[in-house]
Amino acid sequence: MPAKDNSDREAFKDEYIRMQGDRTEKFPQGFRNPENYNIRNSPGREYMKQDNDPRLKRIDPDNGN
């Protein structure tokens, strides 16, 4: 089911973007911020790297290479 795989992959990317919106000075990795309930990082970051997604550079400029 390629369509489902693709939408799951995109959903993880969207999740990573949302979690990075929770970054603060104290929690530079947004998923660690207690305001969000994630206890681990989303696989979306790795998917974005694998897909050379240009959004990664905007939301994670230090590690988006």
Architecture overview:
This protein has one domain. Helix content is 48%, strand content 0%. It has three helices and no strands. The longest helix is centred in the first third of the chain and has 19 residues, at 2-20. The model has no long low-confidence stretch (mean pLDDT 79). Residues 21-65 are annotated as: Disordered. Residues 46-65 have a biased composition (Basic and acidic residues).
Total number of strands: 0
- Count of domains: 1
Main sheet summary: none
Q: Describe the global form.
A: globular
Concise account of the structure shown:
The chain has 65 residues and is mostly helical. It has helices at 2-20, 44-50, 55-59.
What topology emerges from the helices and strands here?
Elements: H1 2-20, H2 44-50, H3 55-59
Helix pairs in contact: 1-2
Region (Disordered): 21-65
Biased composition (Basic and acidic residues): 46-65
Which features does this protein show?
single chain; 65 residues; mainly alpha; 3 helices; 48% helix; 0% strand
